[in-house]
């Protein structure tokens, strides 16, 4: 199945889902891993802790946010996929970033953790059959299929990597 096979796009998260190409989910996960592997470490090191505007996250905080966010979304996905029945609440990504120690870690550490989480996420989705992928996940005030959750997770990375490219890379000079 491809991204275009998603029957209902949830408000707000459709932005992340639609950032994906119209490819098979496993191919989208493979491309997301390649995107992590292809990061220019030297460029990110030149950027360091610079931000493009006051109050914005550092590159380290963005990478930590991606990892934290993905773990939360995998939990939500698993609850839905296994039809556990509870409806997880939202989370405060600002509080999580404020309380992370991302700026105490190296960019290599953060990217290695993100990659490890992404490999585990891909393995989870690879284990889901068509029936499981069709199950609706409910959380807070939203619902989407397990299948859409996969593209949502990948699209979130695409979004933040686009922000890094557009707003942070110019700071490397």
Automatic annotation (TrEMBL):
SUPFAM superfamilies for the chain: DinB/YfiT-like putative metalloenzymes
Top-level lineage group: Bacteria
Residue span, DinB-like domain: 25-164
Pfam families: DinB_2
InterPro entries linked: DinB-like (IPR024775), DinB/YfiT-like (IPR034660)
Protein name per its UniProtKB record: DinB family protein
Source species of the chain: Albibacterium profundi
